[in-house]
Amino acid sequence: MSKEIRGSIVAIVTPMHDDGSLDLPALNKLLEWHIESGTHGVVIVGTTGESATLSTEEHCDLVGHCVDQVKGRVPVIAGTGSNNTQEALYFTESARQNGADAALLVAPYYNRPSQEGLYQHFKVLAKGVDIPQILYNVPGRTACDLSLETVDRLADLENVVAIKDATGDIPRGIELVRKCGDRLAVYSGEDAITLPLMMAGALGTISVTANVAPMMMSQMCSLALAGEEAAAQAIDDKLMSLHQNLFLEGNPVPVKWAMAQMGLIGSGIRLPLVELDSKFQLQVSEALTAAGIVLSDVA
Q: In this predicted model, what pLDDT tens digit does every residue of 21-32 receive, in sequence order?
């Protein structure tokens, strides 16, 4: 399935009320806005969706809710990874039962497995649940790096169909496309380097920036897929300040603050995360302005 997902895939936030409870009507509005804006796919309950502080019930219910709201209009990818292999199996099977089109599986974090441990972890998931599975390598968060050699081994497993590369390393990403791109769809996991990776053969991005600029990200990715690099670069230049400033604090703190300023969601976020520090708010506001985003565009 993921081989068919190309372009801008939003790693969507989970809207919350001020008390941290889920705001499902706001999520519904976001999903409709993304579909209308040309977003090519949705990742629900990923890192940007605050999966770390969702209860098991909330996690599974949000996947089902998203699938029901989207109604097949774009693919829905469920974040189902864990550093507990059995928990990852549970979430992945739940996503399959809830009708998700694919699962996004982060490399196990904190417990720092060996490359053989990583291979065996993903092998158990690939063999245990019949759903297209996307590997997710983000060593800056996990303290664990899924090596090119291990990805190459995993690419031969049935159900392993793609990888989200969030190493931030352009040469490495290009080598990943060269080595595994004939067997795996490669998605950028770093907005700032999406365009060069796509021009090298990546099929799209799993994007934070798309939360605030879905149409521009969709257009940029579509142009890149068509080989129209100059036109894609012109859009990406306008977005670059967002790509950078939406990570001034840990994701999703800046992007949720930006979306609240745009009137898209309330200000709710769950501890241990808190609202964006005031010293960064002007930079994020200026990045929105640089991208041509104003409140009247989304009111």
A: 999 999 999 999
Q: How many Å is the Cα radius of gyration of the chain?
A: 18
Question: What's the pLDDT score for residue 50?
Answer: 98
Could you state, in chain order, the average pLDDT of each consecutive group of 10 residues for the chain (299 residues)?
A: 80 97 98 98 98 98 98 98 98 98 97 97 98 97 96 97 97 97 97 98 98 98 98 98 98 98 97 98 97 66
Q: Coil, helix or strand for 102?
A: strand
CB 107 within 8 A of CB 118: yes
Catalytic residue from among 109, 127, 136, 279: 136
- 199 is a domain residue: yes
* Chain centroid, CA 273 distance in Å: 19
Catalytic site includes residue 164? yes
- Is 194 inside a domain boundary? yes
Q: Which residue has the tokens 């720092």?
A: 112
Q: Is 127 a catalytic residue?
A: no
- Cα 147 to chain centroid, rounded: 20
The reply to whether 275 falls in a domain is no
Report the number of distinct structural domains present in the chain.
Answer: 1
For 54-105, the DSSP string reads: S-HHHHHHHHHHHHHHHTTSS-EEEE---SSHHHHHHHHHHHHHTT-SEEEE
pTM for the model = 0.96
State residue 201's pLDDT score.
97
Angle, alpha carbons 167-168-172 (nearest 5°) = 70
- Residue 157 Cα distances to 101, 135, 178, angstroms: 18, 12, 18
CATH number at residue 134: 3.20.20.70
Residue 182: CB atoms within 10 Å: 9
Q: Which domain holds residue 147?
A: 2-226
Selected catalytic residue, list 71, 109, 127, 164:
164
What pLDDT score does 4 carry? 73
